[in-house]
Amino acid sequence: MAYPETLTKQPSEVLTRSMEFQPALIPGRMIATCPPPVVTIKKQAASGTAAPGDLTFGAMTISGTVVQTQISGGKDGATYKLTFLAVDDQGDHIESEGYLQIKAL
Fold it and tell me: Cβ distance 73 to 59 under 8 Å?
């Protein structure tokens, strides 16, 4: 998987998405905790009203080296940068990023 990845969703969709941390982890280690991602605006919506709080995240689910969450919301035309900050089972802090583009069809 190429980093950072860009995913696309419509404003009204509620989608479950995953972030893979394996490339950043020491072999044999697993993710222990991961709070909801930090959201910043990469590209503003045409209306100019996109804000980090436009997105809502469900519970963070961890399975080995993968973190999964449900994402809803977003302003049409905006691109959000999602920064996931995980802690592995040995206490190392790992960061992974991706982009979420909101596009009404």
Answer: no
